[in-house]
Design a protein that fits this description.
By secondary structure, the chain is α+β, with helices and mostly antiparallel strands. The protein has one domain. 17% of the residues lie in helices and 14% in strands. It contains 2 helices and 6 strands. The strands form 3 sheets. A two-stranded antiparallel ribbon has the order 1-4. Strands 2-3 form a two-stranded antiparallel ribbon. A two-stranded antiparallel ribbon has the order 5-6. A hairpin with a 2-residue loop joins strand 2 and strand 3. The longest helix has 18 residues. The protein is elongated. The relative contact order is 0.15. It comes from Oryzias melastigma. Its cofactor is heme. Belongs to the cytochrome P450 family. It holds the Pfam family p450.
Length: 132
């Protein structure tokens, strides 16, 4: 459940104290973005797939500052805007050209990710893509 993901290590520049722990100078630190993405105080249902996290009461998109899939700060992914545009175009193209269904019906799809020591990965699914 606490996979590292794709983050770059940071190093402490001096001895520091954090939440009662001493972190010596030159210690390698990996930011745990997973903890932000699963924080109970920031998400109404943090361990479930819930599109409502990103919609207001009228169904319009709302940005949630706790959603940081590309990291944050000066070490954030420089290709974030390109990646978002490419993902959007790819998905729109698929949805324009195909109708998707599950061979066992929509209730058979498990939306909980699989956890590994490297990253959270989507489960494998069988889908039927029917050309429109």
């Amino acid at each position: 459940e606490y996979a590292l993901g794709f983050v770059l290590p940071h190093y402490s520049l001096k001895d520091i104290s954090f939440r009662g722990y001493t972190i010596p100078k030159d210690t390698m630190i990996f930011p745990m973005l997973h903890s932000v993405l699963k924080e109970d105080k920031l998400w109404s249902t943090p361990r479930s797939f819930n599109p409502q996290h990103f919609l207001d009461h009228n169904g319009n998109f709302k940005k949630n500052p706790a959603f940081v899939p590309f990291s944050a700060g000066k070490r954030a992914c420089v290709g974030e805007s390109l990646a978002r545009m490419e993902i959007f175009l790819f998905i729109v193209s698929l949805l324009q050209n195909f109708t998707f269904s599950s061979p066992n019906g929509p209730d058979s799809i498990n939306l909980v990710p699989e956890y590994s020591s490297f990253a959270n990965v989507p489960r494998r699914y069988e889908l039927i893509a029917t050309p429109r």
